[in-house]
């Protein structure tokens, strides 16, 4: 099995290559952005687990990923949707601050996929997040969740939003993520016998 890795943080990328490289028959490529992969590279499986929240051009990113699929390949995208408690925390916190949500979520992926010619399906998968309850751990989760936006938000109010999930000495959040399965866009044959990429979105009933 060959393996390619994309990670924007160079230190994390180096650590991932060192960790997963020995498990792969060949480290085909690695880089800090999708453009680092040669356009000719094709993959049987591409996974994006909770990484598309922050990309600047979601539709273009999804289309580029799908273009790297082999003929029978699949792109698996896991991302929080409206049923995800942490995504709801995003919506509530930014709304309270009078700011629009600056990140993507499952609904964003669904809309973007409707604009490209890749067939796809989506399902919900159960998720459980549990950690020891302490002010420090709550702040760690919130800093991770909000990143640079955290400094401008009401920290005490955010920490209090985790109160409903306190169970004994732990915080336990059970929610659902969205799992998208995306396949390579079909190739149509023109009357002249030349292949042409399909342009009509196929949607989730493929």
Helix content: 25-40%
Contiguous runs where pLDDT drops below 50 for at least 5 residues: 195-206
How many strands appear in the DSSP assignment? Answer: 9
The percentage of residues in β strands lies in 25-35%
Rg: 20 Å
Q: What is the SS-derived class?
A: alpha/beta
* Biggest sheet features: 5 strands, mixed
Spell the H/E element sequence: EHEEHEHHEHHEEEE
- Give the number of helices: 6
Measured between the Cα atoms of the first and last residue, the distance is 29 Å
Mean pLDDT across every amino acid position: 84
Based on CA inertia axes, which overall geometry fits? globular
Could you describe the 3D structure shown?
The chain is α/β, with parallel strands linked by helices. Helix content is 29%, strand content 32%. The chain has six helices and nine strands. The strands form three sheets. Strands 3, 4, 5, 6 and 7 form a five-stranded mixed beta sheet that branches. It has a two-stranded parallel sheet with strand order 1-2. Strands 8-9 form a two-stranded antiparallel ribbon. α2 (58-67) packs across α4. The chain is globular and about 50 Å long.
């Amino acid at each position: 099995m060959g393996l390619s890795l994309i990670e924007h943080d160079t230190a994390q990328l180096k650590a991932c290559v060192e960790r997963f490289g020995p498990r792969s028959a060949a480290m085909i490529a690695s880089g800090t952005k999708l453009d680092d992969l040669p356009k000719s590279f094709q993959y049987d499986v591409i996974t994006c687990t909770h990484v598309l929240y922050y990309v600047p051009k979601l539709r273009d990113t999804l289309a580029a990923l799908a273009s790297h699929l082999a003929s029978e390949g699949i792109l698996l995208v896991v991302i929080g949707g409206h049923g995800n408690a942490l995504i709801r925390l995003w919506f509530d916190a930014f709304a309270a601050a009078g700011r629009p949500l600056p990140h993507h979520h499952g609904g964003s992926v669904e809309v973007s996929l409707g604009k490209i010619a890749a067939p796809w399906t989506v399902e919900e998968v159960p998720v459980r997040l549990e950690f020891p309850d302490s002010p420090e751990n709550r702040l760690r989760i919130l800093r991770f969740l909000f990143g640079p936006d955290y400094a401008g938000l009401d920290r005490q109010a955010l920490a209090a939003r985790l109160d409903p999930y306190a169970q004994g000495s732990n915080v336990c959040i059970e929610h659902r993520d969205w799992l998208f399965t995306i396949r390579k866009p079909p190739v149509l044959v023109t009357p002249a016998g030349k292949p042409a990429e399909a342009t009509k979105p196929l949607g989730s009933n493929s």
